[in-house]
Amino acid sequence: MRHVVSQFGFKLQFCFLASYHIVKDTLVLGVGGAGADIAAYMAIKLKCPMIALNTVSHSLSNRKYGQTLLLGPKSCQGLPARTPARGRKAAEETRQDIIALLDGISQLVLVAGLGGGTGSGAVPAIARMAREQEIAVLAAVTLPFTLETNRRSVAKVCLQELEEAGATIVAFDHESWPMVSGGAALSLNAVLEAARDRLVGMTVKQLRLGRGLF
Description:
Largest sheet: 6 strands, parallel
Number of strands: 10
CATH class: Alpha Beta
CATH architecture: 3-Layer(aba) Sandwich
Radius of gyration: 16 Å
Order of helices and strands: EEEHEEHHEHEHEEEH
CATH superfamily: Tubulin/FtsZ, GTPase domain
Shape: globular
Number of domains: 1
Structural class: alpha/beta
């Protein structure tokens, strides 16, 4: 395993693309809008169950998510968390439902795009809940572009909290991906799809390493 210190100063585990495989006793939780979208794709590749978690009620109606859980129905009332503090509160409010989802699993993969309220606030809280149940936690996250100054600051705090919670972290930094290919500018959607594919590959690699498959 290669350890790389990010520009934030945290020691993250970056992995290379690997072939996809079935992972037993593993649950993928997609937290927030970006996290749920990436997790839905990841679960297909991993051939394991996936559940979408969000504070925004209408976002959970997407059929591709299958099972869903609304976070903080009282504190957020079906609306965006907006801040990490509210995202954390929403997760704590839904604590018993989250713990019920973790029953019978040995590995939890938490997927989120960091920088916003729901993912940045709820993911560390959920990681702590899982570690209390002695469940291995892998946080697969994306980091905002450098120009998103405030969002990157939020992401930095979240990474620290995940590290303190005892989660293994695989992170894709959007800033590391070229915006131009073959002399032509890439669309934002193309960049996001590339980030998704890269993060899924990194996650699969880490899961294989963790189970002694390499």
